[in-house]
Amino acid sequence: MKAAYIERTGPPEVIQWGELPRPEPQGNQVLVKVGAVALNPVDTYIRAGTIAMELPRPFIIGCDVAGTVEAVGPEVTRFKVGDRVWGSNQGLLGRQGTFAEYVAVEEQWLYPTPENVSDEEAAAVALVGITAHLGLFLHARLQAGEVVFVHGGTGGVGSMVVQMAKLAGAKVITTGGSEEKVKRCYELGADLAINYKTQDEAEEVRKFAPEGVDLYWETLREPDFDRTVELLAKRGRMVLMAGRDARPPFPVGPFYVKDLSVHGFVMFNASAEEQRACAEDINRWLAQGKLKAQIDRVMPLSQAAQAHRLQEESTVGKKGTLAGKIVLKP
Hints:
Blueprint: E1 2-6, E2 16-19, E3 29-39, H1 41-48, E4 59-60, E5 65-72, E6 84-87, E7 102-106, E8 110-112, H2 119-139, E9 147-150, H3 156-167, E10 171-176, H4 179-187, E11 192-195, H5 201-208, E12 213-218, H6 225-231, E13 232-240, H7 252-257, E14 261-264, H8 272-287, E15 295-300, H9 304-314, E16 325-329
Parallel strand pairs: 9-10, 9-12, 10-11, 12-13, 13-14, 15-16
Antiparallel strand pairs: 1-2, 1-4, 3-5, 3-7, 3-16, 5-6, 6-8
Helix pairs in contact: 2-3, 2-8
């Protein structure tokens, strides 16, 4: 089979596209014929070696996948040949990734794809959808009527936070770096979308939520905690899921006197059961058309190295050139 893989960590140029043996499903593994995969910032960190993980050699890159069951291992009980499935949490903790024509995945990390949802859509919501759901509901315990702020409402995670928070009955404030992105934020359901290049974010947030924000979801790699704490309401919560190398100053006094809390998490620390609970809600919303994937572009899987360069320019390079996910197809 064809696959995008690396023999060592490094820049996007270390990604190779070539032949590797097709895996055979063992035990509770499902062999998926890949229909689409999606690229995440964490994929670039693992490839670059920024996140130190023990990787098999060669290592197939990628976390997200959607496709069709080609074969099943002898212990599989939830899926059969021909089922359409999607999932994430691959390419982590010693598991091979998904950027290949076929991938063997333990069935606990796979979920049925609704009939009216394409492989491209399912792949595009996988990691970012599970991440948003875990942060909003498992960690921050979002309640209807609360005010949520999230940076980058058209981004991978940001767009999921906007939509899921609205589905939960919250009021949502978000940001975009252009008038086009601001317009898209409103289309996704935002109550207030701020152009951070032309408007004063803090001033606009204070006007909309004079009592403060209940849940502040930080997607920036270098957060400004002084501003965040100032904008949070009493007993507000902050969610952190980016900025692995960030070491910003932290206003301890203003933080604790407002009874604030901070919730840091990564998706792959969540158990299979916790992630499946997220997937069940995601599938229901996808099937009902209430949750929509944000896809910036679709590329051939053979162009994985180019896709990694684009992703790094947008996130690590801070160009913000992507409005949604890069999806790749074999």
